[in-house]
Design goal:
The protein is α+β, with helices and mostly antiparallel strands. The protein is built from six helices and 15 strands. The termini are close together.
Length: 231
């Protein structure tokens, strides 16, 4: 069995409204004062804005992928991780997996530990502080997460036709309400625990049955998710 989750689209406990604190400034400072000239030359438009965009996309893009005008996505450096996120309103509770600005995912410590135990060394995690209004720090530790698995298990011929649509460059978009109609090849995803698909937009996150079972047993809360077709 395999599970799929679309990133939440409405603000709430799985998608707090807010923005990062000091991240843009830190990236601009690095670009202007510390980045070697040969790294800047890899950008068609070498500005700190281009660099900041590239860094944000590292968290939602396949390592090694190259976009026109930008260098390939490499490892996320320590100085490239956001350190704090300030919410616009107070949230009494947040999910164990949340979406932040720029579609970046964050997980609480319990979910991070489960993922790292089942799939050690595959995904990137870095601590981030969640701050509510009046500088009140949310009492649970969160970690920004960049998924390291990108697979090609999507089986369009076996999927319900109305569960996906074509986009440019052979990528597919998904309809969250019809997510359960997607089919994935068991042979292709194998023993992977957490991944994204090459041919589906990064709005989709996939979970193995084992990972989902442990999440459920631990009582952790995820955004809405669905059983997909394992073929």
């Amino acid at each position: 069995m395999v599970w799929g989750m679309a990133l939440p689209g409405r603000f709430g406990e799985f998608f707090p409204d807010g923005d990062y604190v000091g991240w843009d400034e830190a990236l601009a400072q690095y670009f202007d004062n510390q980045m070697p000239a040969e790294q800047k030359a890899l950008f068609d438009r070498p500005t700190h804005q281009s660099y900041a965009r590239h860094v944000a996309e590292k968290f939602t893009s396949e390592p090694g992928l190259k976009r026109l005008g930008f260098p390939p996505f490499g490892p996320i450096a320590a100085h490239e991780t956001p350190k704090a996120f300030e919410a616009e309103k107070k949230y009494a509770s947040l999910g164990s997996l949340i979406k932040l600005t720029d579609r970046i995912l964050a997980v609480d410590g319990l979910l991070k530990d489960i993922i790292e135990r089942l799939e050690p060394g595959v995904h990137h995690f870095s601590p981030i502080e969640i701050v509510m209004p009046k500088k009140v720090v949310y009492p649970k530790q969160y970690f920004v997460m960049a998924i390291g698995n990108y697979l090609d298990s999507f089986a369009p011929e076996q999927s319900d036709p109305d569960s996906w649509t074509h986009q440019l460059h052979e990528y597919c978009s998904i309809d969250e309400g019809k997510l359960s109609g997607l089919a994935l090849s068991r042979q292709a995803f194998g023993r992977a625990q957490l991944w994204r698909e090459h041919r589906i937009t990064s709005e989709l996150v996939c979970f193995s049955d084992q990972l989902m079972s442990e999440i459920t047993s631990a009582g952790l809360r995820l955004p809405k998710h669905y059983k997909l077709k394992g073929i």
